[in-house]
Design brief:
Helix content of chain B: 40-55%
Structural class of chain B: alpha/beta
Radius of gyration of chain C: 22 Å
Mean pLDDT of chain C: 86
Radius of gyration of chain B: 19 Å
Low-confidence stretches of chain B: none
Helix content of chain C: 40-55%
CATH topology of chain C: Cytochrome-c3 Hydrogenase, chain B
Chains: A alpha/beta (about 190), B alpha/beta (about 230), C alpha+beta (about 375)
Low-confidence stretches of chain C: none
CATH topology of the largest domain in chain B: Rossmann fold
CATH class of the largest domain in chain B: Alpha Beta
Oligomer: heterotrimer
CATH architecture of the largest domain in chain B: 3-Layer(aba) Sandwich
Strand order of the largest sheet of chain C: 1-2-3
Mean pLDDT of chain B: 81
Number of helices of chain B: 10
Number of domains of chain C: 1
CATH architecture of chain C: Orthogonal Bundle
Strand content of chain B: 5-15%
Shape of chain B: flat
Order of helices and strands of chain B: HHEHEEEHEHEEHHHHH
Number of strands of chain C: 8
Largest sheet of chain C: 3 strands, antiparallel
Distance between the termini of chain B: 38 Å
Chain lengths: ~190, ~230, ~375
């Protein structure tokens, strides 16, 4: 039964021209779709193919392309298949429409994306700050926010200069590594 | 009523009773043997506190017992990384505790940020914001380490060396400056620290300074916190 | 806080009061706040307030090497850390297209089930304390420590193990360790009878929890409830069975369900789950000596390890429900994006707010504990 349903869904999705369909393995399907048709696709999948469980909404910041990627992971308890619906939204407009009327448990994820990326969801029940209520900087998960620079600006570090270390340092040794020399602390920018 | 109390002259008298020191030592001994700790579960380290308090390691045999209210607690356990949002609450809690009070920083994160040194959300050095008596390093420290650290604290209290709470009154300007640097110039707590410092006779030239002046500028009468539902 | 510093705010007369639960409150699980509006002792409305444990994990992971990230993954959920390690390793292996040796897979299953057992003991302790019964807490902690001792022998860490790495596990098991696991779990099984007498057949506990925090099937599906909380509503779904990972498809286990959907049902489902965990652990102990071979597939130099570009969505069943990670790589030596979807993000926020409506004030802590909400998972 579920095998037939899965085949039926594959055939159907492959026939729609505006979306890109890719079956990754037995229980994972990736769909790339235009941002205008996400809601109708989700509604179709929920209503006709029993994808009732919204597992998560992920957001990825593709800063070089100036786009946010939204990924809706939905799971069907009957077909045992997870469909990931990918869509891209311009980084400048930075607003989108909520799926609250289709999946009521999207509220947390949309609120989370709103405060971590600054993307506004119209129609979501609550867009107030939740985790970062005491934060007044830029949305921290964006790629252009440099966490390390912010930390160096706002915090001091513990001094650790015991005698044995001072002795070493007078001879030119020591354990202190300057941040510029730390190999693994930054993303490679080449 | 408080105004009237302030006008009463307090006379500093020399202690002439030869038994005074014996009595002090006895007091310190008793204090060290009945510690009520307020464990603020700021982070991961809190998961090792139930084993410390329950059957296997049984902290209560050392006279250490958990206490739910800061008003009756002696020891503030800060168990793990302190996010900026929590730090405000930790400072409020610390200021509500009656003196003498002791702070124990558990986990490496309270010492220097630990593995969250890059994180924008966690405070790095707990001792910038409040005086700390004992650090127990480790990620996370085992229950034996926590008990050993508590025994060190008890020894410090017994010998009268655990007086870092006085630092908070003596160097209030420094601590307030650090808090304002992180929370913004309008940061204020409901506790009147300078009044308490006067009460304990711990006013020094570092108690007041530019930061307390900034606090007085912004200070307004507190209103009950408004909550939106 | 001195009274003279306060000025009472003039407000219209009302019999509604607002009350803060937490962040530092004995009835709250961890560092979490819940604000309620009460009339009498009936809760009219509740709002969750998270963020006290926020560390910005997802940002931290973008700034660290693939291999460095293993050290911080278990910190996301403190009482049940092993699934976090395993799911991160599964994600990286999926991106690299790496095969994991069979022995490592069985060892991972064993760890995950041991961790689940320990987390359930923690859960019973917490749930008992909210009803004023402190003995389960003391017993549960002492019994959980036996499992932690086994972990300590295996990898040196009590709470955070970091035993799994991409490609397998770090080292093979010590001599005689399986026998000790076997005897420890035999002992724990003999203890379960005492837990029954103390908690699950105790009239105080049953009367206190029955009919409180009732969630029906439709609400549960709409709110995205997963794991034992969903099984307590009569829906037998589990990632281990429906979306099998590692070697769970070769194991024989049942999914216990309850129909009531209240606090008692949620506790009973977990109690029945303990026997299934014991079944799985016994199967692994029986099968493991016959499975030879390496415990780790070779990985490239971890300090210069570029994972191929791609994206993956992995799910495992933690002790609280469906745990999922979305990991994106751009072909660099660090993850481009790692998104954590913890089960508590649903349970501790929307479900708790939903169940709090109309509940009595003294039941709020109990409802929160019975949902097994894990605040660090919400905040990340």
């Amino acid at each position: 039964m579920s095998k037939e349903l899965a085949r039926w869904m594959d055939d159907l999705l492959q026939e729609i021209d505006t979306l890109k369909f890719e079956r990754k393995n037995e229980r994972r399907v990736r769909v790339d779709v235009d941002s205008k048709s996400v809601h109708s696709l989700l509604e179709l999948l929920r209503g006709r193919a029993s994808f009732v469980h919204l597992s998560a909404i992920s957001c990825v910041d593709w800063i070089d392309e100036g786009q946010f990627e939204l990924v809706y992971h939905i799971w069907s308890y009957e077909m045992n298949t997870l469909v990931s619906v990918h869509t891209r939204i311009s980084r400048d407009s930075c607003s989108y429409i909520s799926v609250y009327d289709i999946f009521p448990n999207c509220a947390f994820y949309e609120r989370d994306i709103h405060e971590m990326y600054g993307m506004y969801f119209e129609g979501s029940p609550c867009m107030d700050k939740f985790i970062l209520t005491e934060w007044d900087g830029p949305p921290p998960m964006r790629k252009d926010f440099d966490s390390e620079a912010w930390v160096n600006e706002h915090f001091d570090w513990q001094d650790y200069h015991p005698d044995w270390l001072q002795e070493l340092e007078t001879q030119g040794g020591g354990i202190a590594i300057h941040p510029e020399e730390q190999r693994f602390s930054r993303r490679n920018k080449e | 009523m408080m105004k009237n109390l302030e006008n009463i002259p307090v006379e500093q008298r020399r202690r002439t009773n030869p038994l005074a020191h014996v009595f002090d030592e006895f007091m310190a001994f008793c204090q060290s043997r009945s510690l009520f700790m307020l464990h603020y579960c700021t982070g991961c380290g809190a998961v090792e506190l139930p084993p410390v308090m329950t059957s296997r390691f049984d902290g209560e045999r050392l006279g250490i017992s958990p206490m739910v209210s800061p008003r009756q607690a002696d020891v503030l356990l800060v168990t793990g990384y302190v996010s900026v949002k929590t730090l405000k609450r930790v400072i409020l809690t610390y200021e509500q505790m009656p003196a003498p009070k002791y702070v124990v920083g558990i986990c490496s994160c309270t010492v220097n940020g630990g593995m969250y040194w890059q994180s924008y959300a966690t405070a790095k050095k707990l001792s910038d914001y409040m005086p700390v008596d004992i650090y127990i390093a480790g990620c996370m420290p085992r229950p034996e380490a926590v008990i050993s650290g508590m025994r060190d604290l008890m020894e410090k209290i017994r010998t009268g060396k655990a007086d870092s709470w006085k630092d908070y009154f003596r160097n209030y300007d420094h601590y307030l400056g650090q808090q304002q640097r992180l929370f913004g110039p309008k940061w204020q707590t409901p506790t009147d620290i300078i009044g308490e410092a006067e009460h304990y006779g711990l006013i020094t030239k570092n108690t007041r300074g530019e930061h307390t002046r900034l606090l007085e500028e912004h200070q307004k009468r507190l209103e009950p916190l408004e909550m939106r539902l | 806080m001195r009274p003279e510093n306060y000025e009472a705010k003039r407000q219209p007369p009302s019999n509604e009061f607002e009350l803060n639960f937490g962040p530092n409150h004995p009835g709250i699980e961890g560092n979490y706040a819940f604000r309620v509006k009460v009339s009498g002792d009936i809760v009219l409305e509740g709002k969750a307030d998270a963020g006290y444990l926020h560390r910005g994990f997802e940002k931290l992971m973008e700034n660290r090497l693939w291999i460095q990230n293993i050290a911080i993954t278990p910190r996301i959920c403190v009482p049940d850390p092993v699934p976090m390690e395993v799911i991160y390793c599964l994600s990286v292996e999926d991106l690299c297209g790496q095969e994991v040796p069979a022995r490592a897979q069985w060892l991972r299953v064993l760890q995950m089930e041991m961790s689940r057992f320990a987390a359930y003991l923690f859960y019973f302790g917490g749930l008992g304390s909210t009803n004023g019964m402190y003995t389960p807490h003391y017993w549960g902690m002492a019994d959980r420590d036996l499992i932690l001792d086994l972990f300590e022998e295996l990898c040196g860490g009590r709470v955070y193990h970091i035993y799994n790495i991409p490609g397998g596990v770090r080292r093979d098991i010590p001599d005689g360790w399986l026998e000790r696991v076997s005897s420890t779990f035999d002992y724990l099984e003999s203890r379960l009878k005492d837990y029954d007498d103390l908690v699950f057949r105790n009239q105080v506990f049953i009367r206190r929890t029955r009919g409180i925090g009732v969630l029906n099937q439709q609400e549960a599906l709409e709110l995205g409830v997963t794991g034992p909380n969903l099984r307590a509503c009569g829906l037998p779904f589990d990632v281990r069975r429906d979306d099998p990972y590692l070697v769970y498809d070769q194991l024989d286990f049942d999914l216990p369900t309850e129909d009531a959907g209240d606090n008692l049902a949620r506790a009973l489902v977990r109690r029945a789950d303990l026997f299934e965990i014991l079944r799985i652990i016994r199967q692994v102990i029986k099968a493991l000596p016959d499975i030879d071979g390496p415990i780790r597939a070779p990985i490239p130099n971890p300090l210069a390890w570029n994972v191929p570009a791609g994206e993956t969505y992995q799910r495992v069943e933690s002790s609280k429900g469906e745990l999922a990670w979305y990991v994106v790589s751009d072909g660099g030596d660090k993850p481009y994006r790692a998104h954590v979807r913890g089960p508590s993000q649903t349970h501790a926020v929307q479900v708790l707010e939903h169940l709090a409506k109309g509940a009595r004030l003294e039941d709020i802590a109990q409802i929160m504990f019975s949902l097994d909400a894990c605040p660090p998972e919400v905040d990340r």
